[in-house]
Input
Amino acid sequence: MAKIQAIRGMNDLLPTESPVWQYFERTVSDLLKAYGYREIRMPIVEQTELFCRSIGEVTDIVEKEMYTFTDRNGDSLSLRPEGTASCVRAADQHGLLFNQTQRLWYAGPMFRHERPQKGRYRQFHQIGAECFGLAGPDIDAELIILTAGLWKKLGIQSDVTLQINTLGLPEERAAFKADLVAYLSKHVDQLDEDSQRRLESNPLRILDSKNETTQQVLNDAPLLEDYLSEETRSHFSSVLDYLKQAGVAYSVNPRLVRGLDYYSKTVFEWVTESLGAQGTVCAGGRYDGLVEQLGGKATPGIGFAMGVERLVLMLKELDVVPAEAIRTVDVFIVAAGEGTQQKAFELASTLREEGGLRVLQNMGGGSFKSQMKKADKSGARVALILGEQELENGEVVIKDLTAEAGQRTLGQEDAVIHLKKLFDNQG
Ligand code: HAM
Output
């Protein structure tokens, strides 16, 4: 019988990979907590209308990429293609937005029916942060500074660059859009097919077309910045000032528009060249109209989400994951000879309970040599070896598996103390 395979674009995360994911998730969540963000978990399935009303009816996500189905009650439901809409829905539904600032973060799978390729999947994972109730430019800067700090912690700061733009308020954008459409309509023959289609449905997206002829036409197009109010401009320049003072380098990209309709004012993307075509690893912006648009009381909001698969790929390609961060076993216990396994159980428990260590005890017997092979393969840092001789003397042999550091024989109690210290120092 043919074996059933996973769905294209939806990946299994294997145990060889999961330590890097855990390291990444731990690093991000520690940093988010250090900035006062608290975790929220939303369902994976929502009413389809939530995404239509927030992301926008005429975006690629809603038009072409959602996993939408009718459930047994006849309701139209969709797998979430992103987290912001659900987060706003949940925060408003549970009264978290009433007269208060709210800093929330979430992590989990998102679903988009895109063409799978390196860095682009149909089930992918995001870690996102959303902050509600703050309208000033300082929080825009704080969020970006937070992400810049993350790249530093991960050791990838020189491989990502920040692109930033302001999209203004909806009314400012509307005036610009009208003039842009009027201009582009005069050059419609020179536009690529996608852009021709977008001229009707979502003209702003034409700005980030990768097509060269379209880009040439855009060179003489009206500029959004000429349509922005004083208030919008000064908000943006304050954000840039804060970033400058914090030493976060950026490049203002007037053609950065984002693929979701809910943004206003600041938008940004962190981009890398090290992944090929799918180079955006983190993206976000301000969405001051969204809460109200979804039926809540007007509340400013801003946030970002990063693509976990893309960042994990980057960490691996740049080889910046510290070996200790992804080690899953500290000590492997080799017990060979009559009566040694009984003692090994005891030592393993002591090391786990008193030392807080991760201990793999050899199971199923085997010669000393074959057990040592297993110890090497386990990835443990240290082998604790117990033979009949050691058992008799109340001793064990401690062997460092990561270096040619040799081995030493210690009394069993001393060995526990020694190992506790060794791993404490390592942090
Ligand atoms: P987004 O730009 O659609 O924004 O997605 C954010 C990040 O998710 C992207 O920069 C990318 O790293 C990752 N990503 C998106 N699609 C895929 C895919 N098919 N495969 C792998 N990774 C992918 C949002 O989702 C907004 N909710 C961000 C936000 C939060 N804005 C404000 N708050």
